[in-house]
Amino acid sequence: MGSTSPAILLGLFLISVHLLAHLAAQPAPGAFKCSNTKATCQGLVDYKVPNATALSVIKTRFGVENLNALLGANNYPTSTPPSRVVAANQTIKIPFPCACVNGSGVSDGVPVYAVKDGDGLDHIARDVFAALVTFQQIAAASGVPDPNLITVGQKLKIPLPCSCEPVNGTQVVHYGHVVQSGSTVEEIAQRFGTTNVTLLELNGMTNASDLLAGQVLDVPLRGS
């Protein structure tokens, strides 16, 4: 077999660089700051449904305590049946218990996912839980020493980001808002009644241009 030409090698190199740059641009979910290690509260996070899914399935997947909690978080009528289907790629808000551990918030006890045949940690993180967590975070939370070695039926903790930290002296709900393409810090701040400075500080960002589509942004929601 003849040797590979320099032009082909250069082409492969450029493709590899492009792929690496693309992967590097994908935002990894970050922890929300939470300094009070004894604090517990209610968390809230966006979930972009990967496939058309009934509310009852979403409730079970995330371990939501009761259907009314899920309905209330999304302003659905209390008469909404659990069989109602949420369309693929629609975003729904998930309420869950939050606890502060080692300086950051994490979902407290739920969700717990049972590994199915053919599952891998990356698939579970990206596809089942819509990249709200990374496979490394699942492995760490679940005490999995080798992410490549999981077994059918194994229970995995899914550490959703959250916080119980007051903001400017006021108790808030820290909402994990998944940033949409084209959104800006200013637009998000105006929509949710906060400020650019608060969003940047909460999320450890130095510049509004650091915002990335798909990022799970810590947005403080104040009670009405």
From TrEMBL:
<feature type="signal peptide">
    <location>
        <begin position="1"/>
        <end position="25"/>
    </location>
</feature>
<dbReference type="Pfam" id="PF01476">
    <property type="entry name" value="LysM"/>
</dbReference>
<feature type="domain" description="LysM">
    <location>
        <begin position="111"/>
        <end position="158"/>
    </location>
</feature>
<keyword id="KW-0732">Signal</keyword>
<feature type="domain" description="LysM">
    <location>
        <begin position="175"/>
        <end position="219"/>
    </location>
</feature>
<dbReference type="InterPro" id="IPR018392">
    <property type="entry name" value="LysM"/>
</dbReference>
<protein>
    <submittedName>
        <fullName>LysM domain containing protein</fullName>
    </submittedName>
</protein>
<dbReference type="InterPro" id="IPR036779">
    <property type="entry name" value="LysM_dom_sf"/>
</dbReference>
